[in-house]
Write a structure and sequence with these properties.
This protein has 93 residues and is of the alpha+beta class. It is built from 3 helices and 5 strands.
């Protein structure tokens, strides 16, 4: 287990009652994402879809790296890592 910080951006902060960050103990990115709604219940429906997959419009970074370029949810976490959750932007002309 590693103590990591999860940072919330955009609408995710609003859905978490204004929280911008939370600290968790987790071994992988997937484990951290599963623990997060226990700390911030407003995020429960926003992280995973009905099949249990990370929602399509959620970008997750471990430190500076997008997790899909690493090992996805199985990406290991080290003490002091920062996970950043960013809702994807869409729209425009």
């Amino acid at each position: 287990m590693a103590r990591v910080t999860v940072r919330l951006h955009g609408a995710f902060s609003d859905m978490a009652g204004g929280a911008r960050r939370v600290t968790l103990d987790a071994g992988t990115v997937g484990e951290a994402l599963d623990l997060l709604p226990g700390e911030l219940p407003g995020l429960r429906e926003r992280i995973r879809d009905e099949q249990g997959r990370i929602r399509q419009h959620l970008n997750v970074f471990r430190n500076e790296d997008e997790i899909h370029r690493l090992q996805g949810e199985g990406t290991p976490l080290r003490e002091g890592d920062v996970l950043t959750l960013v809702p994807a932007m869409s729209g425009g002309n």
